[in-house]
């Protein structure tokens, strides 16, 4: 069995991770004390992917929880599932990062890094065949961004042949509480280009829009957003946790989703999404799931994916669904939105199917897309970043922690290069279209000359 080590960094990462472990523990029939219950063998078969077997038949999450301040970790210890975690996997710093990327990357986070790596090594030693690492963090704060990016590079240096998969919460000015979030986000994205193999980007602005407009929650709380992210994570990891008709792992996912090394930033989506009032009046079908997956309102990014090109996609279906019907619906979507898919990537939609639905639903689907439209998300962050950096606002807080001002310019250049690389994929698509049109014209002219 190929195991995964989960690492949660910062307050947001630990809160999302806490909800993720609650959801998958319920799906795998693990109670709050870590004991397996029930008679079904399917939830038990692949428990070793995310859980270690402890004494007295106790299953312990293979997780490392770290933060530079103790508040969020103490709340997890006192929560309903707090007893399920190994106490040695909690790594707590002396003081917080103060929403400062440099403080998490160079000073406070660097001092705690040895303890985090030691806890990670203990988890790796319990694995028979390590598949990779799953990192949960927010790139807007100080710990999740600074310490998280440092941890990525440490993992890549020590475990070079293993996959580093991140679930990164992207900040938004509309729902922001910290003025320096653009600094932290751009600096972290620059490190993620080489520090991660797969980065699943979850836009805070899109989460609020989904909760408010689709789920009809008047005042979305952080718990609502965390639940939405955790449900999506549970859907993405379904094919790792259950045996199914078509399954994949982290390495296969990277191979099928990344046409170029740097283009490994994905946008997730989930279906069905409906308010509690309306879900009782509508029956969910395979057609509904497929149409919702490609709907911008169900994707967790505040831009329209149809403005770019889908390079690659992965759809994970859960429940009793027909493989033939899924293929037909996906083919119909591709034919209908032909201009939204890159023509130079054949068979660019990968599917995985699991017969076991999530709790409370009969059918569900999770979507991961590698789309060139993600450049609009990067441009939004870069615009906010430049507006402050041009005035050198708040720079002294970063340079005071040992950071060089040239790193800000280098991060700007790296994100610009990434955006240009995504744009180049669109230009290639357009040129292919033009070449095909010219070839068709030449064929028509030749045929008309022959007829004449």
Supply database-style keywords:
single chain; 452 residues; alpha/beta; Rossmann fold; Helix Hairpins; 2 domains; 15 helices; 12 strands; globular; disordered C terminus; Tubulin/FtsZ-like_C; GTPase activity; cytoskeleton; microtubule; nucleotide-binding
Molecular structure report:
This protein is an alpha/beta fold and 452 residues long. It has two domains: 3-376, Rossmann fold (3-Layer(aba) Sandwich), CATH 3.40.50; 377-451, Helix Hairpins. Helix content is 47%, strand content 16%. It has 15 helices and twelve strands. The protein has helices at residues 10-27, 42-45, 71-77, 101-125, 143-158, 181-195, 204-214, 222-236, 238-241, 250-257, 286-293, 323-336, 375-389, 395-399, 406-451, and strands spanning 3-9, 51-53, 59-61, 63-67, 90-92, 130-138, 163-170, 198-203, 265-271, 310-318, 349-354, 364-371. The strands form two sheets. It has a ten-stranded mixed β-sheet with strand order 5-4-1-6-7-8-9-12-10-11. Helix 4 crosses helix 5 and helix 5 (143-158) packs parallel to helix 6 (181-195). The longest helix has 46 residues, at 406-451. The radius of gyration is 23 Å and the shape is globular. The N and C termini lie far apart (68 Å). Mean pLDDT is 89; it is low at 432-452.
């Amino acid at each position: 069995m190929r195991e995964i080590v989960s690492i949660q960094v910062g307050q947001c990462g630990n809160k999302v991770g806490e909800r993720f472990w609650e959801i998958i523990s319920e799906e795998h029939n693990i109670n709050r004390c870590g004991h397996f219950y029930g008679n079904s063998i399917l939830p038990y078969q692949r428990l070793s992917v995310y859980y270690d077997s402890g004494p007295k038949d106790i299953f312990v999450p293979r997780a490392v929880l770290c933060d530079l301040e103790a508040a969020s970790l103490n709340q997890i210890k006192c929560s309903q599932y707090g007893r399920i975690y190994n106490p040695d996997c909690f790594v707590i710093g002396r003081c917080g990062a103060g929403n400062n990327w440099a403080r998490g990357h160079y000073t406070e986070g660097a001092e705690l890094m040895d303890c985090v790596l030691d806890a990670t090594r203990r988890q790796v030693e319990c694995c028979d065949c390590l598949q990779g690492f799953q990192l949960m963090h927010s790139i807007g704060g100080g710990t999740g961004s600074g310490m998280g990016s440092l941890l990525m590079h440490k993992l890549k240096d020590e475990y070079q042949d293993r996959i580093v998969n991140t679930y990164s919460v992207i900040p938004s000015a509309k729902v922001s509480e910290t003025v320096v979030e653009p600094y932290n986000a751009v600096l972290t994205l620059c490190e993620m280009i080489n520090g991660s193999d797969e980065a699943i980007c979850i836009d805070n602005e899109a989460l609020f829009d989904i909760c408010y407009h689709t789920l009809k929650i008047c005042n979305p709380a952080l718990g609502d957003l965390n639940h939405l992210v955790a449900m999506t994570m549970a859907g993405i990891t379904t094919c790792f946790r259950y045996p199914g008709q078509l399954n994949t792992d982290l390495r296969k996912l990277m191979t099928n989703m990344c046409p170029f090394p740097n283009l490994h930033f994905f946008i997730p989506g989930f279906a069905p999404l409906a308010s509690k009032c309306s879900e009782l009046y509508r029956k969910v079908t395979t057609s509904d799931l497929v149409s919702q997956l490609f709907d911008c309102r169900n994707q967790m990014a505040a831009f329209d994916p149809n403005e770019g090109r889908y390079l690659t996609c992965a759809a994970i279906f859960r429940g009793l669904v027909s493989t033939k019907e899924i293929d037909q619906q996906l083919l119909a979507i591709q034919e209908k939105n032909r201009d939204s898919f890159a023509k130079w990537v054949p068979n660019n939609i990968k599917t995985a199917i699991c017969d076991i639905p999530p709790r409370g639903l009969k059918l569900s689907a999770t979507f991961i897309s590698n789309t060139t439209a993600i450049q609009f998300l990067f441009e939004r962050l870069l615009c906010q970043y430049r507006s402050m950096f041009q005035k050198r606002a708040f720079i002294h807080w970063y340079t005071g922690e040992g950071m060089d001002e040239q790193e800000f310019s280098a991060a700007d250049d790296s994100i610009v290069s990434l955006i240009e690389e995504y744009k180049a994929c669109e230009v290639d698509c357009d040129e292919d279209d033009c070449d095909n049109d010219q070839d068709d014209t030449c064929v028509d002219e030749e045929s008309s000359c022959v007829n004449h």
